[in-house]
Amino acid sequence: MNIPLVDLKANYHSIKKEIDGAIHDVLESSSFIMGPFVKKFEENFARFCQVKHGIGCANGTAALHLALLAAGIKKGDEVLTVPNTFIATTECISYVGGRIKFVDVVPQTALIDIEALEKAITRKTKALIVVDLYGQMPDMKRIQEIAMDHDVFVIEDAAQAHAAEWNDHQPGFYGDIACFSFFPAKNLGCYGDGGALITNYDELAEKLRLFVNHGRKTKYEHTIEGYNYRLDALQAAILDVKLTHLSKWTDSRRNHARFYDKNLPSSVGRILEAKGAKHVYYMYVIRVQQRDKCITYLKEQGIECGIHYPIPLHLQPAYASFGLKEGQFPVSEQLAKEIISIPLYPELTNTQRQYVVDHIKKFIQS
Ligand SMILES: Cc1ncc(COP(=O)(O)O)c(C=O)c1O
Question: Which residues form ligand 1's pocket by a CB distance below 6 Å?
Answer without folding.
Answer: 59-61, 85-86, 88-89, 131, 157, 159-160, 181, 183, 193, 195
